[in-house]
Amino acid sequence: MAMMLRHPDEVLPLMKMKVASAMLKKQIPPEEHWSFCYTMLQRVSRSFALVIQQLGVELRNAVCIFYLVLRALDTVEDDTSIPSDVKVPILESFYRHIYDRDWHFSCGTKDYKVLMDEFHHVSTAFLELGKSYQEAIEDITKRMGSGMAKYICKEVETVDDYDEYCHYVAGLVGLGLSKLFYASGKEELAPEFLSNSMGLFLQKTNIIRDYLEDINEIPKSRMFWPRDIWSKYADKLEDLKYEENSENAVRCLNEMVTDALRHVDDSLKYMSSLRDLAIFRFCSIPQIMAIGTLALCYNNLQVFRGVVKMRRGYVKYVYNCDLPIHHVLVSPKTVLDYLGLFPVVNLGCISYQ
């Protein structure tokens, strides 16, 4: 209540989002496998479950299954309790399992474990998609699994390594979505480098924001910040979370944010080429959220102390698209002005034409 009194302009977006969340439950298909998929999508990513509603039914089904397949693949990669000699073959062969209604592999925790234990529902739904959708999902799953396997046995040393890792785990998502949009007949096939940048920008934002969560992962830390950057500021990446290293930690953080901003220009070019408004909204909302998140992270020691995230009212405002969203194609300053975050990040060095 106190938050609402301080920010009354966010009350309506919050109410709209609550109604939209309730509507999601009513839109769950009756078939058991599709019901599982959409219910699971809401459990593993409420934000994505809301964004995906922008799309028409056929494309929405394909994107839902694409997301769950890659989420399952990511669950295998993320589970640090799985020995590498077990994990690598599963990652490399995962693309074949999506055709097998009987396959499952128990790993992960909570809702992710349910997804893995009952993966046959995802496979059943996958097999009902059109062939062009299936081929796109299979191709990206194969390439992503191979790339993930590579980085199970390899650390992120250089910025090139960092770009390559982010390509495998997120850039390929951008490529896959572009393939699905093309298969739907609603968009032309976007250049791969633009699709890749869409994914890299989102992934790098998450890696920056999630520093503390990843570094404190049990039983083993997960470290994705490139050594070429963090070694300028600390002997060990985990040293950045200690109070005595606060000044260097913020400097390192700001260099990471600056690196992520390299991909903004390509992301805006990608979105400017989209013709379908629903697809535009689906793509642009996460990008806007990433811009706002980076603005919050920049120069913010809290990245190394706890959780950094946008206030719920900000998030609901963006999801409700009350913002004249096409203005983002001119400059992300439009979003940051509303959020009260500009000029926290100096984006003036990037040209948005």
From TrEMBL:
Which reaction(s) does its UniProt entry say it catalyses? 2 (2E,6E)-farnesyl diphosphate + NADPH + H(+) = squalene + 2 diphosphate + NADP(+); 2 (2E,6E)-farnesyl diphosphate + NADH + H(+) = squalene + 2 diphosphate + NAD(+)
Coiled coil located at which positions? none
Looking at the UniProt entry, the stretches that span the membrane are none
Taxonomic lineage is:
Eukaryota, Viridiplantae, Streptophyta, Embryophyta, Tracheophyta
- Report whether Glycosyltransferase shows up as a keyword of the record: no
Q: What is this protein called?
A: Squalene synthase
Q: Which Pfam families match?
A: SQS_PSY
Q: Which Gene3D superfamilies match?
A: Farnesyl Diphosphate Synthase (1.10.600.10)
Pathway-wise, it operates in: Terpene metabolism; lanosterol biosynthesis; lanosterol from farnesyl diphosphate: step 1/3
Q: Which family does it belong to?
A: Belongs to the phytoene/squalene synthase family.
Cofactor(s), by name: Mg(2+)
Q: Which UniProt keywords are listed? A: Transferase
Keyword Transferase among record annotations = yes
Enzyme class, broadest EC rank? transferase
